[in-house]
Amino acid sequence: MIAVEYLRDLRKVSADDTLSDLLARAAAPFDRTEWWERLQRYCDLDPIFVVARGRDGLALLPLQTQGDNLSALANWYTFRWKPLITPGANPAPLLEAIARDLGRRTWRVSLPLLPEEDGTGSSLTRAFRRAGWITRCVSHDSNHILRVMGRSYADYVAGRPGPLRTTLRRKSGRVGCVVHTRFAEEVWSAYEAVYRDSWKPEEGSPDFLRAFAEAESCEGRLRLGIATIDGEPAAAQLWTVENGTAYIHKLAHRETARKASPGTILSAALFAHVMDQDRVDLIDFGTGNDAYKADWMEDVRPRYHLVALRTTSPRTWWHLARAASARLAKPGRRRLARLRLARRASPR
């Protein structure tokens, strides 16, 4: 027998030893109660935590409500999303019990950013399918990583592309870099000033990032890099380190300093720090296929998006009919566009 319950506040479960132990095992920023609380407080997400309890353990799905849908409790700051499951427990019946129970609460569940290197994507897809949902799980993003494999920074950088090594050799002398491991007001102000003057869009939630950096500093996990040119901040990067992995969360450089390549020089300083001092096993560059990531990373892992639709809901069939209609209309729209182009191009 597996019981499923829904919680709004994980802070109220301190007397639940099994759940408290599971939460204490979090090995990445995105699996912690504090991360989810910041998403709620600073990013206006509405969390609901689904817990399935079996004889050999439990499974926790951190979700958010979006109208009459449910989706992963994640946003643009999240590298990947996955359930938390008691070590040694069989996840299949726990996940299937959750999927079956969710059918009484919503007609659509959307779970992006699923990893597959540990089987998360396929196990969730099977669970929803066995519970009677219509499922579609497709690759929708990429996660660039570097497996350090015991290399020193010197060994690693010797294998980088020639243009990158040339940039590091020619421009390192002008750029000064410091990797801060403790949060300080003046350092964070420098980070924010660089970001404002960079090519990056306006930050989604500056308060979220600041609170995250402060908390990571208290735990000794913060690696905040600042590059300067003639004493002025020119580039900034926010990394964290835990359990053998370095996470690259944010990076930016001032457009006016682009020719000096301060971002590249600062990246090198942070790679050297986490490889030679922190001795991490893995460096995680988050999601996205930015071209510059290929210069630093050596492997790419897909991230999947699972959408599950409840078969008994009229909303599902309306949704599927509209999607099918849109697919059928696409060829006609393409033909019409080609005809219009041909008419404009024909001699008059």
TrEMBL record:
The stretch of residues making up the signal peptide is none
Molecular functions (GO terms): acyltransferase activity, transferring groups other than amino-acyl groups
Say if the entry is tagged with keyword Transferase: yes
Query: Which InterPro entries is this protein grouped with?
Result: Acyl_CoA_acyltransferase, BioF2-like_GNAT_dom, GNAT_dom
The UniProt keywords, alphabetically, are: Transferase
Which Pfam families does the entry link to?
Acetyltransf_6 (PF13480)
Q: Which organism is it from?
A: Novosphingobium aerophilum
The residues covered by the N-acetyltransferase domain are: 178-316
The identity of this protein, by name, is: GNAT family N-acetyltransferase
- Organism's domain of life? Bacteria
Q: What is the lineage of its organism?
A: Bacteria, Pseudomonadati, Pseudomonadota, Alphaproteobacteria, Sphingomonadales
